[in-house]
Amino acid sequence: MENISNELEKIKEFGLYRDLNVVENVQGSHVKIKSKTYVSFCSNNYLGLANHPLVIRAVKDAVEKYGWGAGASRLISGNMKLHEALEDEISKFKRKESTIVFPTGYMANIGTICSLVSSGDLVICDRLNHASIIDGCRLSGADFRIYPHCDTEKLESIFKKSSKYPRKLIVTDTVFSMDGDLAPLPDIVEIARKYKAMVMVDEAHGTGVFGEKGRGVIEHFNLNEKVNIVMGTLSKAIGSLGGFVSGDIDLINYLRNKARTFMYTTALPPAVCAASIAGIKLIQKDLSLRKSLWHNVRYLKERLKLLKLNVISSESPIIPIVIGDAKKAVNVSRFLFNRGVLIPAIRPPTVPDESSRLRITVMSTHTKDDLERLLDVLEDVQRQI
Ligand SMILES: Cc1ncc(COP(=O)(O)O)c(C=O)c1O
After folding, report:
1. What number of CA atoms fall less than 13 Å from residue 76's CA on the CB side?
2. 109 in a structural domain
3. Residues 294 and 229 reside in one and the same domain
4. Are residues 160 and 104 part of one domain?
5. 104 lines ligand 1 (CB under 6 A)
6. Is residue 312 one of the residues assigned to a domain?
7. Domains contained in the chain, number
8. Domain range spanning residue 81?
9. Do both 265 and 363 map to the same domain?
C-alpha cells in the first residue's frame, strides 16, 4: 500500500489529482454543490432531458408496472418488454434493421470491438478516440494501429499495408469528445470501402445533437447507408443510461452471441429503458430542444471570438479552451468555481500532455443570462493568464 500512497502523492504533485463534487439537486444547467448554486457548463445532458418532466413520468410509470431491477442478464431472465421496446425505438430512430443495448456506452464499445476483431485481424483508430474505443482495441488482441487525429492520408497509408489481414475494422468517434470537432467521415467511409474494411462509428456526442432529425453525424453527412456499425450512448443528449449498437440483423444477432459485456452482465433496470424511450421520442418530436441548443452554441462561439483565450474552433456544443499546464488549468477552473461557474479542468491522460483545458459544453436549457455570466468570468480569466 505504501507504493499506492507514493503514486497518489505524485499524481497530486503534477496537478493531476481528481476530486469529486457532490451535486445536491437535479442535473440541470444549474447545480447545487455544498448548498451553493453554480451554472454548469460541463454536462453532456445537452437537451436537458435528464430532468425532463415527461422522462420522469415515464420512469415512474415503468417502476409502478415493472418494479426496479432486471434480476438477471438479458440472456437468462432479465430481458423484459422495455428492453425490446427500447431496441425497436433506437432502430427506428437510427434507420437501421436492428439494435442491441448494453448497460453503458463504455461496455458497448468494448464488447463490440472485441467481438468484431481478434488476434490476426487489424483494428485502426483515430488518436483522439474515446478511451472506451482505445480500451476495446487493446483488449481485442487484434493488431492495433493509431493514425494522427483526422489524418486520412495516414489512415490510407496504414490500409495500403493491410492486405494480409482477413478482417479490418476502422473505429472513430463522429464528434471528438474533448475537442468537439467532427471526424472526416465521408473520406473515412470511402477509404474503408476501397480496402474492404468495416466502419464502426461512435455517435455518443452526435446522437440527438446533429442531423435534421437528431439522428447524428451520419445523418448530417447523409451516410446512413454507408456506415454499417453505429454505436451510441443513451447517457448524453438522451439523458439516461446505456449504450447501443445499431446495424443489420446478422450483426446484432452476432453481437448478442459474442459480446461478453452484453452476455455476462445484468440487464438495465426496465425503468431506465423507459427513460431512454421517452428521451428519443422527445428528440424527434420537440424540435425546439435542438434549436435552442444550437442557438446557444452559435451565440457563445461568436462572443468567445472577442476574448483573447485559446478557444479551439469546434463544430459541436463542445468548446475547449486550452490552458496547457495541468496545474494552471486547475487554478483557472477553481477561479471559475469561486465565481459560480462549474467547468472542471480536463487533464492528462484524458487529453495529451500540455493541453489541459476547460471543456465547455453548452445545453439547450442555458439562458442568455447563464451565457453572459460565463463570458463575464472568462473575461476576468483572460486578464489573469
Ligand atoms: C465518445 C464516447 N464514447 C463512449 C462513451 C461512453 O459512454 P457511457 O458514458 O454511456 O459509458 C463516452 C462517454 O463518456 C464518449 O464520450
Report:
1. 10
2. yes
3. no
4. yes
5. yes
6. yes
7. 2
8. 53-285
9. no
Q: Cell 445499431, residue?
A: 246
* 201 in the same domain as 71: yes
Best CA proximity match to 208, nearest among 156, 276, 139, 295: 276
Q: How many alpha carbons lie under 13 Å from residue 378 in its C-beta half-sphere?
A: 27
**What pLDDT does 233 receive?**
98
Looking at the structure, tell me whether residues 291 and 281 fall in a common domain: no
Answer yes or no: is the C-beta of 29 below 6 A from any ligand 1 atom. Answer: no
**Contact between residue 374 and residue 385 where contact means Cβ atoms under 8 Å apart:** no
Q: Are residues 168 and 21 in the same domain?
A: no
Examine residue 349 and say whether the peptide bond preceding it is cis (omega within 30 degrees of 0): yes
204 C-beta closer than 6 A to ligand 1: yes
Q: Mean pLDDT per 10-residue run, the chain (385 residues)?
A: 91 91 94 96 97 98 98 97 98 98 98 98 98 98 98 98 96 97 98 97 98 96 96 98 98 98 98 98 96 98 95 96 95 96 95 95 98 97 84
| 264 Cα: distance to centroid of ligand 1 (angstroms) | 20
Q: What is the Cα 29 distance to its own chain's centre?
A: 18
Same domain assignment for residues 64 and 179: yes
* Domain's final residue, options 285, 320, 335: 285
pTM: 0.96
C-alpha grid cell, residue 144: 492495433
* Domain-located, residue 7: no
Tell me which long-range contacts 88-93 makes (C-beta under 8 A, separation of at least 24).
Answer: 89/276, 89/277, 89/280, 89/281, 90/232, 90/244, 90/246, 90/280, 91/246, 93/215, 93/280, 93/283, 93/284
The reply to whether 67 and 102 lie within a common domain is yes
**216 Cβ closer than 6 Å to some ligand 1 atom:** no
Q: Is 276 exposed, middle or buried (0-12, 13-18, 19+ CB in 10 A)?
A: buried
Determine the residue of 128, 175, 235, 351 to mutate for testing ligand 1's pocket, defined as the one with the most ligand atoms within 8 A of the Cβ atom: 235
Residue 144's nearest CA partner among 178, 114, 174 is: 114
Is residue 48 one of the residues assigned to a domain? no
Lookup result for grid cell 454505436:
231
What b/e string do you get for 97-112 counting C-beta neighbours within 10 Å, with b at 16 or more?
Answer: ebbbbbbbbbbbbbbb
CATH number of the domain to which 359 belongs: 3.90.1150.10
- CA 89 to CA 114: how far, in whole Å? 26
Last residue of a domain, one of 248, 267, 285: 285
